[in-house]
Amino acid sequence: MTLAAAQNSVPLEHWLTLSGVLFTLGLCGVMMRRNVILVLMSVEIMLNAANVALVVFNKYLIANAPEGVALDGQVFVFFTIAVAAAEAAVALVIAMALFRRLDTVNVDDVANLRW
Amino acid sequence: MDFMFLVFAALAVIGGLVMAFHHSIVHSAFALVGALFGIAGLYWTLGADFLGALQLLLYVGGVTVLLLFGVMLTTRDSARISTFRYMLMAPVVGMLAYFMLNTLRGVYAVVSELGVDAAEAAPTTERIGEAFLDPDVFLLPFEVAAVLLLLVLIGAVTVARRGSSDEGAA
Asked: Cβ contact (<8 Å) for A48 and B116?
């Protein structure tokens, strides 16, 4: 066992299960809910599940690099959070424009491009 | 460490469950706050103190407020909130949060005295900052992220501006 993994009493499988459960919840929200804002929230949860997996892998797998603890996974999470914030802002603006234009936020009602 | 993991994981999963399945979108938004807070706690449990703080600032503080604004602006008969009942609730919730934070601080003190791994990884802020400013590592992605945020700022203002060209008769 690596030093970091040996000291951490929570096994890797528990973390990954948690990440998978969160991702599944987000997926359920995306597929089942019809409010566009709620779909956006579910996407945020899915992104967070992936972020948790990144940080966990960074701790459990990279941590035994010879020159100390590399932090690449945490830096990736930083970028994910930045992109997620950008995504949330743009998506909310789109939802607002949708509401002003079509008077709805139900994703099923927005089928203008469907043929 | 196990205990903290269980607490924060339960917070995240329960928050995610309520978020995905509650019929009221405002409740969903607040459940999302709980889930994101739980994930911030998980980052701390993993020794990623910088990411935990970032999660609190950006997600719990920023994205959620943005989402709530979105809910307010896109709901026709916005939720009738009986202000009085919630004003009675506020001190109770505040005291609860205070005691919870105190407990957490106590737990954290115990954990760090036991010398569990949090001390080994944290503080990470300095090393992450150095990785961002090192041209050999993450300087270019960092700059690209900055440009992306600027683009999003301009794009969001352009699309959201009332009376923009694609507004039509609405």
From this structure: no
Q: With bands split at pLDDT 50, 70 and 90, how would you rate the model's confidence at B119?
A: very low
Number of C-beta neighbours around residue B66 at 10 A: 17
CB–CB of A56/B43 below 8 Å?
A: no
Q: What is the ipTM of this complex?
A: 0.85
- Chain A: closest CA distance from residue B99 (Å): 26
Residues of chain A with pLDDT under 70: 1-8, 63-69
Q: Determine, for residues B128 and A78 on separate chains, whether the beta-carbon distance falls below 8 Å.
A: yes
Look at the block and give the residue holding tokens 């039509």.
B168
Q: Which spans in B55-138 are helix H? A: 64-74, 83-113, 118-121, 125-133
The CATH code belonging to domain B3-122 is 1.20.120.1200
Q: A12-102: which CATH architecture? A: Orthogonal Bundle (1.10)
Half-sphere exposure of A15 (CA within 13 A, CB side): 26
Of B20, B66, B116, the CB nearest to A25: B20
Residue for token pair 């603890």: A69
Helix (H) or strand (E) holding A30: helix A12-32
Domain ranges of chain B: 3-122, 134-170
Question: Do A69 and A14 form a contact (C-beta atoms < 8 A)?
Answer: no
Closest to A99 (Cβ–Cβ): which among B1, B42, B73?
Answer: B73
